[in-house]
């Protein structure tokens, strides 16, 4: 299975980065699920949770407020005004 290179960053620091099989995020257009091979897109991040399913099968949950989401060539970047990890589940 092809993986995504994911980075979640806030205005102050990188919050999380790594490889994942799926990312789900809330944008101003609604919730979006991203898998490998997704078409390029840009979206505005609506305040809410970003869920990342890592290559190891863990779920990383982050809270992101403001900013944007970018998807291109199996790279997902969530660049938020404020972001923090809220939970990591096995």
UniProtKB/TrEMBL annotation:
Keywords: ATP synthesis, Cell membrane, CF(1), Hydrogen ion transport, Ion transport, Membrane, Transport. It comes from the Bacteria. The keyword Membrane applies. It is found in: Cell membrane. It is a peripheral membrane protein. Residues 5-83 form the ATP synthase F1 complex delta/epsilon subunit N-terminal domain. InterPro entries: ATP_synth_F1_dsu/esu (IPR001469), ATP_synth_F1_dsu/esu_N (IPR020546), ATPsynth_dsu/esu_N (IPR036771). The keyword Ion transport applies. CDD domains: F1-ATPase_delta. Belongs to the ATPase epsilon chain family. Produces ATP from ADP in the presence of a proton gradient across the membrane. F-type ATPases have 2 components, CF(1) - the catalytic core - and CF(0) - the membrane proton channel. CF(1) has five subunits: alpha(3), beta(3), gamma(1), delta(1), epsilon(1). CF(0) has three main subunits: a, b and c. This is ATP synthase epsilon chain. The lineage of its organism: Bacteria, Bacillati, Actinomycetota, Actinomycetes, Micrococcales.
